[in-house]
Design goal:
Structural class: alpha+beta
Oligomer: single chain
Low-confidence stretches: 1-59, 412-420, 460-484
Shape: globular
Radius of gyration: 30 Å
Largest sheet: 12 strands, mixed
Strand content: 15-25%
Distance between the termini: 11 Å
Helix content: 10-25%
Length: 783
């Protein structure tokens, strides 16, 4: 923050004048050697050729030396990209290129990359593009900005859509006449809207073909951030008349779709924040296929329009598993063990490890180590033993519960092992019994909270894949299921008060040949000391959630390109019904009855009709569409008082969206880790925007003077407000207030962030949500 000039009642930052003095010209990247003007990258650009290029291509392929028969030269490809997207090459940029062939679509392409040097302590901009080396068609373009997106957005979504369509018509005038809009979600980040995203599917014989088409992202300032184009010329389309009608397809969905309640990491918060949501999830997932993104999988399942059978992305028939209805291994049995007051010592933990029948009495201890744990895990003893046949065995024991929590024989498992001739020696039912017996031996005090679905072990798609739960929890290890080429894997469900707990993980691997347990892992996220609070309450009826999914998913007739099994190459085109949703269906909150979204509400989920004609419509619309402010019970509620916690959360999302570390224990008694504003309040405390104390009162209305104090601290002027006698009181209702409050009111008035009314500041009045939006809007305009 620059020096400041302070007058009575007026505050002016001289740092602003310094920023307006002129741009800082970044230096050429160290080590770059400029080439002669007019070279491949542009006038005077440092350049490196094949294989230096790094531009990504959706179709894959192999980098090779540029052939002489390429119809489009590197210079022509570069010029096409610069002309199409209008960016200016400057002498300080570096340029790389490569040539690629052998992609599944048969296209040979130039990959181009421009990079600007770092600027003002942040990364520079980068431009990546791919150009067809024979036709000159631009296949992809990405512009990664080194600075934050513009706020407020200078274009509306409709204006951004027109920009996207104009570009498609300009670059591909013929193909642009054969497309239709395809659902795709906006690009959202911790600070809100990152870009308006549009997808257009190719239309063949009146039927969408979303495996081909365009995908574009327009930044909030109206610039093209990305462009992707895929259009196959070597595909054969079946007839476009389905045997199955749309109504029949929707009825098939209704007969198939089931839901079950789960605890999941809160996707509306950053990774590393230990917050949990109870949601209903469905056994039929909306397709994620997106036009323009190459040969991406069509989704977990689609409905064949001829056979009326569910099929996977390879065209194989699917038996859609029902939503799990877990029955504990011991109904009414123990759910949580008794924990020790201090960690087990090494000898006691080793005795527990050696009690495993899978470890021979002749095993020799090689190493032992106590992992201290930390937030998100208990202290754990890890032992490595060697068996007489030199096999290495690893065993981990929870030092607080005395339970074996991992076991590994150390035997390598081939990732691509060829299947043995004939059926395996051990059947799936036998492996299941082995796994159940093992769990009963190692986790006897949790059998009332463990369930093994009837489909375990199973082949094919897994209904509820929990393999990504670990990395989303503080200190949680990445959980990778072992390959099932040599082993059966039995995945148990952990139940928290009867609800499936996807943050926890229990799996047992059984050798298909020997019937022995080869790998085992267990982690229980709801144990004491894990720092994770689970929301409690009576979930809404499952049928209500099921109807919400049926209302959100519509079966859409489309052509899709299947993938060839094992090779990953494009396969035949099939006429199917695709389960499509206009918004991502991460989960339906079982307690609130609302859809949850990554990083909070999506722009399209905010009904702006509520604020039409409101005095703060402009600011409210911008803040809510950017995701900085969040609805309350689905409403904007502009005239409702904003709570202390919600204002801090909105301020953090606006100016410091990437947060920071979370303390092991909550700093305020009334802001537990499961409070929706918990991480933001902790981060504000770390930054000194709020005072420490026993309580923060996050759900109480925020007064105008308290808002002023938080804003002054965020701007870095808290020390200035400690100086007495330099501020004039322009407000009649501030007489008798403390010097600190007088200073707070003067500073926010001088900055133009807050204003009084009829000569009054109204310090003790609650600030409305509309007033908070106006203040945050003005604050962002200062940035």
């Amino acid at each position: 923050m620059g020096h400041s000039s302070v007058k009575k009642g007026v505050f002016v930052s001289l740092g602003v004048a310094a920023l307006l003095a002129g741009p800082v010209v970044p230096a050429v990247a160290a080590g770059a050697v400029p080439i002669v003007p007019g070279g491949p990258g542009g006038p005077g650009l440092p350049v490196s050729g094949t294989p230096g290029g790094v531009a990504s291509t959706p179709g894959g392929g192999v980098v090779q030396a540029p052939p002489k028969d390429a119809r489009v030269s590197i210079d022509a490809a570069k010029q096409k990209v610069m002309d199409a997207f209008g960016f200016r090459v400057t002498p300080d940029m570096t340029f790389n290129y490569s040539f690629m062939s052998g992609a599944p679509d048969g296209r040979r392409r130039w990959n181009l990359s421009w990079q600007t040097p770092p600027f003002q302590g942040g990364p520079g901009d980068s431009y990546n593009a791919s150009v067809d080396a024979d036709s000159g068609a631009i296949l992809s373009y990405q512009h990664w900005k080194g600075k934050d997106q513009a706020f407020p957005p200078t274009v509306t979504r409709e204006q951004a859509r027109e920009t996207a369509l104009d570009l498609v018509k300009k670059l591909q005038p013929v193909e642009s006449q054969q497309i239709t809009a395809w659902p795709v979600q906006e690009a959202m980040g911790p600070q809100g809207l990152s870009g308006f995203v549009f997808a257009f599917a190719r239309v063949q014989d009146g039927v969408p073909f979303p495996s081909n088409g365009f995908r574009l992202m327009i930044s909030p300032d109206g610039q093209v951030s990305s462009y992707d184009f895929v259009w196959s010329t070597n595909v054969l389309f079946p007839g476009s008349k389905p045997a199955l009608g749309e109504g029949q397809a929707q009825a098939t969905l209704a007969n198939t779709l089931r839901v079950s309640a789960h605890y999941i990491p809160d996707p509306s918060k950053w990774a590393g924040v230990a917050q949990v949501r109870m949601v209903y999830q469905a056994n039929v997932a909306a397709s994620t296929i997106t036009p323009g993104l190459g040969y991406a999988p069509v989704g977990p399942m689609v409905l064949d329009a001829s056979s009326a059978q569910w099929i996977d992305g390879n065209g194989n028939s699917l038996s859609v598993p029902d939503a799990p209805t877990p029955t504990p291994l011991m109904p009414g049995g123990p759910e949580v063990p008794t924990f020790f007051s201090k960690p087990l010592d090494e000898s006691a933990a080793e005795r527990i490890a050696r009690s495993l029948s899978e470890l021979s009495t002749s095993a020799t201890l090689v190493t032992s180590n106590l992992n201290d744990g930390g937030r998100g895990q208990h202290p754990t003893w890890t032992f490595t033993f060697t068996e007489p046949d030199n096999t290495s065995v690893n065993v981990s024991v929870d030092a607080m519960s005395g339970e074996v929590v991992s076991f590994n024989t150390g035997r390598p498992i081939p990732m691509n092992e060829k299947s043995a001739a004939g059926p395996p020696a051990v059947t799936a039912d036998q492996a299941r019994r082995v796994a159940l017996d093992f769990l009963k031996r190692v986790l006897p005090n949790r059998l009332g909270a463990l369930a093994v679905p009837e489909n375990q072990p199973e082949d094919g798609p897994i209904l509820f894949n929990k393999s990504m739960a670990g990395p989303m929890i503080p200190a949680g290890p990445a959980i990778v299921k072992p390959p099932i080429a040599q082993n059966y894997v039995v995945n148990a469900l952990h139940l928290h008060h009867g609800v499936i707990d996807d943050l926890s993980n229990v799996s047992v691997s059984v050798d298909k040949t020997t019937g022995q347990v080869t790998n085992y892992y267990a982690r229980f996220a709801d144990d004491p000391g894990m720092g994770i609070n689970y929301p409690e309450g009576q979930p809404k009826p499952s049928e209500q959630a099921r109807q919400a999914y049926l209302n959100a998913i519509h079966m859409t007739l489309a052509y899709v390109q299947l993938m060839q099994p094992n090779s990953g190459e494009p396969g035949p085109v099939r006429l199917v019904y695709v389960p499509v949703s206009d918004a991502p269906l991460i989960g339906w909150d079982a307690l609130t009855g609302q859809w949850i979204q990554p990083f909070g509400a999506q722009p399209g989920n905010v009904n702006l009709d509520e604020i039409r004609g409101h005095w703060a419509e402009k600011e409210l619309s911008a803040l809510f569409q950017a995701g900085i402010m969040q609805p309350v019970n689905g409403k904007i509620a502009p005239d409702q008082p904003i709570t202390r916690g919600d204002f801090v959360a909105a301020l953090m999302r606006a100016v410091s969206p990437y947060g920071g570390p979370i303390p092991d224990m909550p700093s305020f008694e009334d802001v537990p880790s499961n409070h929706p504003d918990y991480p933001y309040i902790e981060w504000a405390l770390q930054r000194g925007w709020i005072d420490a104390g026993k309580q923060f009162h996050p759900d109480e209305p925020l007064t105008r003077i308290a808002m002023a104090d938080i804003l002054v601290r965020e701007q870095g002027y808290q020390d200035l407000t400690k100086v007495t006698g330099i501020f004039q009181n322009p407000y009649s209702d501030m007489s008798g207030r403390s010097d600190r409050e007088l200073a707070d009111a003067a500073v926010v008035t001088g900055l133009g962030l807050m204003r009084g009314s009829d000569g009054k500041f109204l310090p003790d009045d609650p600030a409305s949500r509309a007033q908070a939006a106006v203040v945050l809007y003005r604050l962002l305009e200062l940035k």
